[in-house]
Write a structure and sequence with these properties.
The protein is mainly alpha-helical and 1536 residues long. The chain contains 69 helices and 16 strands. The strands form 5 sheets. A 5-stranded mixed sheet has the order 4-3-7-5-6. A 4-stranded mixed sheet has the order 13-14-16-15. The longest helix has 28 residues. The protein is globular and about 125 Å long.
Length: 1536
């Protein structure tokens, strides 16, 4: 082989060198014909082009301004001049082509041919497709093919083949003529000979172009083997080109000549072991296509399995694989295994021998945990993946009914029978996780697939093996939950499983089936009337007018019929007949009577719940007696002790015992709630006291040896009960295509979804309203009826009005240009998206899903009735949240000024005689009616095509006018009188605002009790400290140190219900889910009432949908091991416009203020460009937000408490940079005296302005998906969430002051006790703070640390004594967390609301809000680095510099990690979800050093998260250079 054929080095040329950023010009994609390639071109050029393309893909999108500039730059004065220019150029090129063609045809000298070929390549590089006609290509083709056969001169061969490549590039039709003149055999011959490496590489380039248009010709000419024969000799970039050729060919495989592609299988299987991701993706695609082609041939399937295909595929799909595949390729490989397992016994055995069950177990575990935000609006990747996995499992287990003459199935079954250990291992691995997947609330088809696998597993296992297998999970409880789904196919599989178990283990599971309720579920299927509630297709899943049948969902056999056209295998009476057979065979002989038969434990629990209910039924006077309280306490203690026994009580027994309802009755205090106002004023404290009693019982474990607290045990039982009882429907539109429409009502705008046709008709007896003048109108289906009323009411009033029809037409013409993106809708649409309601609406949904026939939809009590303004349905007071006072007062205030004729008139709407709930959208109301009526095909096409006749009339009822708020205020006032320091409004909202009368049903009771348990867990410190204070007051505790204690917290994820989370995820994945109003009403109602039931990731998606009008999607490629990361740093913002803002580094806050003043209220994506710097895009924007956060922490602003820390007490780090605050416990607003006003104090006015700006910045960062670096305290996050602070919160941001005030609280309570019990011995029992009298503390009525802040209206020189001590402490708490910061907080919220309503954040906790705003603040680990960092362009995961870099990154402390992230991404923190959510993905590429290898520093492109790392000689040198770069390379953006 000649020297010119030597293999080239793998290194790549240096990316544009310099420091850190990227310019938008750098991301222009390159094309193959954009520049001339000369004879000396090498693989470096191809690799550089590859890198440019990658950068353009992952970089940030150019802003609108760039596009405008480019457009203006490329414009010409005259269209005619453009046409003349291109026409003249085309004629010139054609004459040159003719001259070159003539020269090549006549020239015999090699030097002359070289010159002509060089000129031809240059012409082809710059010409357009119009310059090269088809006859000209036809004339060039034989000449070039002939020159490609030149044996003596390799340069002629190279240029001829390059010209062929360029011909295909310029004119794709050229491949037809080139193939006609036998170019492919010539190219294949050169590849097989491989005399010169650059010639061979050019042959690969040419074949890749030709294969795009002529794949069949390439296949027939043997191009696959020619391309793959010597693939190891080429560089990685050239190997990618070669595999692209094979992929093109494999897309058009033919079964006529299988040998043409079968002989390539060994080479392809070997290539699966390579590390390059793009290479492996291409190889996988080829093998998937080959597998599809030979799937009908057993011999060929066996043949391709002999080359390690199964082994290599399992390695790739395993979670430990180093190669990250795209989701479609990953799913395709699983599908390949399905085909192999179906047709090849060799593959079947190999899969079992390679422990396929362990791999599938990991995959299913990943699915079950995947409640993240990674999904697409139309196709959910996890859904497709789990379907393929279940197909594979169903193929690995032979069908139960063995058909005659099917030797393959017989062989498979014989293999499993002869290897019982393999089958048992398969079951042990998969049964628990399959049960977990089913219990997580998956849809019908996944549930059916899992049950089908379990059914086969139970059938194939022997009796002993089955008994051992079922002990790995609570199988009886699982089956009881399956029966609760009430779907024909699912219930039938459950019955078959029960039948098999009772045959093989007749007496082992009888008692278990009784205990868990399986027996009672089967009994309910015996009679036709009891079976009538079983639906043919559950979950409301419908597609067009044809239902998909689960019978064929996992059928891999070949059939001409599609699943939609096949007939269901089940007969109408199949389920009932099998239930009767099982009952007669196994249960009837045991003399079991489901009507009477209960277990001993169930009977005991019923007795206890009845006793508790009886005690609660006594009068209020008896309820306050000490004997009554003691009896209730003992009874509660006994019940909690019973419930704390881990395995003694089943979910069925727990639900049926009545314990849940008794607990709800105890905590709700039904007598108080349903009583009159005088009862409320006199006895409301009982509710609070009961809450404290049960809280202390649950927080104090009776058995210290038990690891689980009674509270955790009760929560787990409630979660199981909720999963088994709830029946919230999933309404899916499936493949229903969205279409653009125009909604006349209520806003007159275009929508990206269909509208409902409605005819509004006045009720016949209604005389005060007039008829609506239009006949049938298009109504936006996803806005609440309140907003429809706002449109309709002025048009139907019985008075002289203008021609409203003309107004409507004018409005339509005015709004003629409309966007079809939901994100572009008006603010009113966003308002309508958030349908937040209280318990009244939730109980309506529960009644529907529990089958309550006497449903009466109640109208809301707290709605503003103004028809002039579209009311935001989310403004309804959520009586279950922790803070209602502020919003309640605001609404009361605004409503009091609208008590005129317009507001006193409300409309009632009726559809088919049933009153519609005003707070629901029209779409939700229709769904609710159809669900109540028992319609299965809810989302059929007729829902959108039919016309709905809605009747309207006046509402003659008198509204209650915020009566529930008065209850809240009455209780809060009473609690304030009892313990004035800590009024505990959080306790009040837990029970006082619920009017439980008329609410029933197990689902509501479970939800209500779970909400209270979550409240106990959240208020655990409050509850236990109040108990300690009471003991201290009575003399049980004398030492202040004994007031300190610790209470174990139940992790928040224990309150997450996986089943409901999965249901919400499924609902948000639906194509129609463009707003909350487009989903079933239970979604918004439940997430508002009990947000803790849903995972943080699911609530993030819901928040972005409701608050920002879009779902959160990540745009980075997804690995198969991705479990659904959290919120990304930059989202796919779709059609949201971008604005580029010029800012000045030395005036950051001024620039931010101007930016917010202009764009806070606009839904635009802001991008930052610094003055006198060229960098722009994601990196500079993130750094801008980081710098703004830094400026808000500058000392002297007067915003934060830390501003008052004396210089001598500052920490060393603060002393180094005295310009910025150090807040070890987080930032909290500095109190300002209420006597100051904006008008009288310029400094205070500036503080208010900065808090407003801070609110705008935070809201805009959330809206744009930017990460902030603001260390707020937990108490400030509570303020953002609308929660009221009290004395206990002070300790979170000022521990010294907080502890002191808690001790003061104890002294106040002791003083009260001594005052009310004068008989106590005053000598042994006094009121002193650590032996110091209150008077000796020398305290005056000023706020400590703020001498200018006078407490109260009296003189600040007034001293504190024992008599005014309580007043002093109360005023201190008020100044610190209430009135002293109220105006700053109002300014912050006001600024925030200018971007989007701050109330949408209430679905999060304080810790979650910090993650949402500031991202992750934890050190990464090695697994994260390996999984979520991409290595490219000269580096692989095994490259020595990469190994060194990963080791250095793991050695970083927190500050070094922050500096590294700031350097590479522009922000010092990772987004929510960590490295997995970084978008674009962090990429490490090789930086070519022009000088000595250790001379250059690393550089970055922040827009693409690119780190360009030189291959340093040692780890020590790399660490030194990297640390220098990340510490010194800050503060500017230039070309990189």
């Amino acid at each position: 082989m000649a020297s010119r054929g030597q293999k080239r080095n793998e290194e790549v040329d240096e990316l544009p060198a310099d420091k850190r950023a990227c310019n938008s010009l750098e991301f222009r994609p390159s094309s193959s014909n954009s520049s001339a390639q000369t004879l000396t071109s090498t693989a470096h050029e191809a690799q550089d082009a590859d890198m440019d393309t990658s950068s353009s893909t992952s970089g940030s999108t150019r802003s609108e301004g760039d596009g405008e500039k480019e457009s203006a730059y490329g414009s010409c004065d005259s269209d005619n001049s453009i046409h003349d220019y291109y026409r003249n150029r085309s004629l010139s090129d054609q004459s040159k082509f003719k001259r070159v063609l003539s020269g090549l045809s006549e020239e015999v000298e090699e030097s002359g041919q070289l010159a002509q070929l060089t000129e031809l390549c240059e012409l082809l590089s710059f010409c357009s497709d119009s310059s090269l006609s088809s006859p000209m290509v036809d004339s060039f083709s034989p000449v070039l093919v002939s020159l490609a056969r030149h044996e003596s001169n390799p340069n002629i061969m190279l240029l001829a083949i390059r010209a062929i490549t360029y011909l295909c590039d310029v004119n794709p039709r050229s491949s037809v003529f080139i193939v006609r003149h036998d170019a492919i055999p010539v190219l294949c011959q050169r590849l097989m000979a491989i005399e010169y490496l650059d010639v061979a590489e050019q042959c690969l380039q040419a074949l890749e172009k030709i294969s795009r248009e002529q794949p069949v010709a390439c296949l027939q000419s043997g191009a696959i083997m020619a391309v793959l024969g010597y693939i190891d000799f080429f560089s990685t970039s050239v190997q990618r080109v070669a595999l692209s050729t094979v992929v093109n060919i494999c897309k058009k495989l033919s079964s006529e000549s299988p040998s043409l592609f079968m002989e390539a299988v060994p080479i392809l299987c070997n290539l699966l072991q390579y590390e390059d991701r793009q290479l492996v993706e291409s190889v996988s695609t080829c093998l998937i296509k080959i597998g599809e082609q030979v799937s009908r041939s057993t011999d060929m399937l066996d043949d391709i399995c002999k080359h390690g295909l199964v082994e290599h595929t399992l390695h790739l799909i395993g979670l430990n694989s180093r190669t990250t595949l795209s989701r479609p390729t990953y799913i395709g490989l699983i599908g390949l295994l399905v085909k192999l397992a179906t047709g090849s016994t060799v593959a079947f055995r190999t899969l079992f021998e390679l422990n396929i069950s362990s791999i599938v177990k990991d995959m299913l575990s990943t699915y079950d945990l995947a409640h993240g935000i990674q999904s697409t609006p139309l196709v959910d990747g996890h859904q497709s993946q789990i379907n393929e996995v279940l197909k594979l499992l169903n193929e690995l287990l032979p069908t139960i009914t063995v058909e005659e003459g099917s030797p393959q199935k017989t062989d498979k079954e014989a293999f499993l029978v002869n290897h019982p250990d393999i089958l048992h291992k398969f079951g042990v691995d998969l049964l628990p996780i399959l049960i977990q997947v089913v219990n997580s609330g998956v849809n019908l088809f996944i549930c059916y697939g899992c049950l089908s696998v379990i059914n086969k597993l139970v059938h194939l296992s022997s009796s002993d093996a089955l008994h051992s297998l079922l002990q790995t999970a609570n199988f009886s409880s699982f089956l009881a939950g399956v029966f609760a789904r009430k779907e024909h196919h699912v219930v039938l599989l459950a019955l078959q499983i029960v039948d098999t178990i009772m045959v093989k283990l007749p007496h082992v599971y009888l008692n278990s089936f009784i205990k868990e309720g399986v027996l009672f579920a089967i009994y309910g299927l015996l009679s036709p009337d009891k079976d009538s509630n079983i639906s043919s297709v559950s979950d409301g899943i419908a597609s067009r007018e044809v239902q998909r049948c689960p019978c064929f969902a996992f059928d891999t056999g070949q059939s001409s019929k599609s699943p939609e056209n096949r007939t269901c295998k089940l007969q109408s009476d199949t389920v009932q007949n099998l239930a009767k057979h099982i009952w007669a065979t196994f249960f009837e002989t045991e003399s079991v009577n489901p009507e009477k038969g209960v277990t001993d434990i169930l009977q005991k629990l019923r007795t206890l719940s009845t006793a508790l209910t009886t005690l609660l039924g006594k009068s209020m006077e008896d309820a306050t007696s000490s004997q009554q309280e003691e009896d209730v306490f003992n009874l509660l203690h006994q019940i909690i002790s019973e419930l704390n026994e881990k395995d003694s009580i089943s979910t069925f027994e727990f639900v049926e015992s009545g314990i849940i309802k008794a607990f709800v009755g105890y905590l709700s205090n039904a007598i108080y709630l349903s009583g009159k106002d005088d009862y409320v004023a006199k006895y409301s404290y009982i509710a609070e006291k009961r809450f404290e009693v049960i809280g202390r019982l649950l927080l104090t474990s009776a058995d210290p040896s038990r690891k689980e607290s009674p509270l955790l045990s009760l929560v787990q039982r409630l979660q199981s009960a909720l999963s088994s009882v709830e029946g919230f429907p999933i309404i899916s539109s499936n493949t229903y295509k969205r279409r653009n429409s125009y909604a006349t009502i209520p806003y007159g705008r275009c929508t990206s979804y269909p509208c409902l046709k409605v005819q509004f008709v006045r009720e016949s007896l209604e005389t005060c309203l007039q008829d609506y003048i239009e006949d049938v109108v298009n109504v936006d289906p996803f806005v609440p009826l309140d907003e429809i009323e706002g449109y309709l009411l002025p048009r139907v009033k019985n008075k002289k009005t203008k021609n409203l029809k003309l107004e409507s037409e004018d409005l339509k013409e005015k709004d003629g240009s409309c966007s079809h993106s939901p994100s572009d809708s008006s603010s009113s649409q966003l308002k309508s998206a958030d349908v937040v309601t209280g318990t009244e609406m939730l109980v309506d949904v529960l009644k529907v899903q529990e089958g309550n026939p006497s449903l009466v939809l109640s109208s809301p009590a707290e709605k503003s009735s103004s028809p002039e303004k579209a009311v935001d349905s989310a403004d309804i007071v959520n009586v279950q949240t922790d803070h209602v006072e502020e919003e309640g007062h605001n609404k009361d205030g605004s409503g009091s000024n609208m008590d005129d004729d317009h507001t006193s008139l409300n409309l009632l709407f009726y559809l088919e005689g049933q009153q519609l709930n005003r707070e629901l959208t029209l779409y939700q109301s229709i769904l609710e009616q159809q669900t109540e009526a028992g319609h299965n095909n809810i989302l059929s096409a007729s829902l959108w095509s039919r016309t709905y006749k809605i009747t309207y009339r006046r509402d003659g009822t008198i509204k209650p006018s915020h009566s529930e708020h008065r209850h809240d205020e009455a209780l809060s006032s009473l609690l304030s009188r009892r313990t004035s320091l800590v009024p505990f409004p959080c306790f009040a909202c837990m029970f006082a605002s619920e009017n439980d009368s008329g609410k029933s049903g197990p689902t509501y009771d479970i939800l209500s009790l779970l909400k209270r348990m979550e409240g106990i867990n959240r208020l655990r410190f409050h509850l236990m400290y109040r108990a300690r204070v009471s003991e201290f007051a009575e003399g049980g505790i004398h030492d202040f140190e004994k007031l300190n204690f610790s209470v174990d917290e139940i992790p928040q994820n224990k309150f997450v219900n996986k089943k409901l989370t999965e249901k919400l995820e499924q609902q948000m994945r639906d194509p129609m889910a463009v707003s909350a109003g487009a989903m079933p009403a239970w979604c918004s109602q439940l997430i508002a009432w009990c947000p803790f039931l849903f995972s943080f990731e699911a609530r993030c998606k819901y928040f972005y949908l409701v608050a920002l009008g879009r779902l959160l999607h990540q745009t980075h490629s997804v690995s198969h091991a991705d479990v659904g990361g959290s919120s990304g740093r930059q989202q796919n913002h779709g059609s949201i416009p971008r604005k580029k803002i010029l800012v000045h580094r030395n005036k950051i806050l001024e620039s931010a203020s101007q930016m917010m003043e202009l764009h806070a209220r606009q839904k635009v994506l802001l991008e930052v460009e610094y003055s006198e710097e060229v960098g722009t895009g994601l990196g500079p924007t993130l750094e801008f937000y980081t710098l703004v956060c830094r400026e808000f922490q500058r000392s002297g602003l007067g915003m934060w408490r830390e501003d008052h820390v004396p210089l001598h007490s500052r920490t060393s780090s603060e002393a180094e940079d005295s310009g910025f605050l150090s807040a070890p416990f987080g930032l909290f607003p500095c109190p300002w005296s209420p006597s100051l006003t904006v008008a009288t104090s310029t400094t205070y006015s500036e503080v208010i302005r900065k808090f407003s700006l801070l609110g705008q910045i935070i809201a805009k960062a959330l809206q744009d998906g930017r990460v902030l670096d603001l260390p707020f305290s937990k108490a400030f996050y509570k303020i953002i969430l609308g929660k009221e602070l009290d004395l206990y919160d002070i300790q979170s941001f000022d521990p010294a002051l907080g502890r002191t005030l808690l001790e003061f609280l104890a002294l106040v309570e002791r003083n009260k006790y001594l005052t009310s019990h004068p008989e106590e011995n005053m000598h042994d029992f006094n009121v002193c703070l650590r032996s110091t009298k209150i008077e000796d503390l020398c305290l005056d009525f000023t706020l400590p640390g703020y001498p200018d802040y006078a407490l109260g209206s009296e003189s600040q020189s007034k001293m504190v004594n024992l008599y005014n001590f309580e007043e002093y402490v109360t005023l201190m708490v008020d100044a610190t967390v209430k009135s002293g910061i109220a105006r700053q907080v109002d300014a912050f919220k006001s600024g925030f609301d200018q971007v989007f309503p701050i109330k949408h954040l209430k679905v999060f906790t304080e810790e979650e809000l910090e993650r949402l705003l500031c991202g992750e603040h934890v050190l990464w680990n090695s697994d994260e680095l390996l999984e979520h960092i991409k290595f490219d362009h000269g580096y692989t995961i095994s490259s020595s510099p990469i190994v060194h870099l990963l080791e250095i990154m793991l050695e970083f402390d927190l500050e070094q990690q922050r500096a590294f992230l700031q350097f590479v991404t522009g922000a010092p923190r990772l987004p929510t979800g960590g490295l997995a959510s970084l978008n674009p993905k962090l990429t490490i590429v090789r930086k070519h050093c022009s000088k000595e290898i250790n001379a250059d520093l690393p550089s970055v492109m922040t827009c693409a998260n690119y780190l360009k790392l030189p291959p340093y000689s040692s780890k020590e040198v790399m660490k030194e250079k990297l640390l220098y770069a990340i510490t010194e390379g800050q503060g500017s953006f230039h070309l990189s």
